[in-house]
Specification:
alpha/beta; serine acetyltransferase, domain 1; 2 domains; globular
């Protein structure tokens, strides 16, 4: 192992692991060499690799890759927490998704992870008052990944969105740390009220496929929302809810449902 990798191991084990996996991937599949080199091995940090990957994915005839790359690079320089959150997301996906057996996979292939990282850039732009550019990121993330997250929405770290198709998260939604959700989840509003109108998801919550959480309601930490449920009322911590409209059907079944990913409704 070279000196640079040894240094990375001391200060950034996630990036070190990704770099090692990238070298192995090139050896195992030489036809992927160009993609892996440009996306990972040509970079000195995860932040640089993420900026490149995001800008390549979102570039279009309306907005070239170079401009988007500059925006992303600037965001990572200005707010180190964006990169820290990305590392937590990678570890979360690796730990919770049985289809993910390497750290390299979310960065290269998983649109849920990639959409969240692009949203983090859009959110910073929104906070800076660059609303139109933030909306451009939102539009392109929706077009490219099928994930529509308003730039104002606040998303925690350690997020795992499995499959990620048709995810919708509204403007005043808040998603806590270590949350897991599956495809077709909606965190939406009700009516035409333009104030605080979207759900507040606590830490450690598991949201099943197709679940709809509507209105300015709190979903308590470490709770579970069953697949296909429509949640219209507050959910206490550490409970399981299911149905249309959703009702409490039992305890959450464990202390970390978003990590365990157990979606069976029986009380554990």
């Amino acid at each position: 192992m070279g000196k640079s990798h040894a240094q990375l191991n001391n200060c950034d084990p996630v990036w070190h692991q990704i770099a090692d996996e990238a070298e192995a991937a090139v050896q195992n599949e030489p036809l992927m060499g160009g993609m892996v080199h440009s996306s990972i091995l040509h970079h000195k940090s995860l932040e640089s690799a993420l900026a490149y990957r995001t800008s390549m994915k979102l570039a279009s005839n309306e907005m070239p890759e170079q401009i988007l790359r500059e925006i992303c690079d600037r965001a990572y320089r200005q707010d180190p927490d964006i990169g820290i959150a990305a590392r937590a997301d990678i570890v979360a996906v690796f730990d919770r998704d049985p289809a993910c057996d390497r750290y390299i996979l979310p960065l290269l292939f998983f649109k849920g992870f990639q959409a969240i990282q692009a949203h983090r850039i859009a959110h910073q732009l929104w906070q800076e008052g660059r609303r139109d550019m933030a909306r451009f990121f939102q539009m392109r993330v929706s077009e490219v990944f099928g994930v529509d997250i308003h730039p104002a929405a606040r998303i925690g770290k350690g997020i795992m969105i499995d499959h990620a198709h048709s995810i919708v998260i509204g403007e005043t939604a808040v998603v806590g740390d270590n949350v897991s959700m599956l495809h077709s989840v909606t965190l939406g509003g009700t009516g035409k009220d333009d104030e605080d109108r979207h759900p507040k998801i606590g830490d450690g919550v598991l949201i099943g496929a197709g679940a709809k959480v509507l209105g300015n309601i709190k979903i308590g930490h470490c709770s579970r929302i069953a697949a296909g449920s429509v949640v219209l009322e507050e959910v206490p911590p550490c409970k399981t809810v299911a149905g249309v409209p959703a009702k409490i059907v039992g305890e959450a079944g464990c202390d970390q449902p978003s990590v365990r990913m157990d979606q069976l409704l029986g009380v554990r």
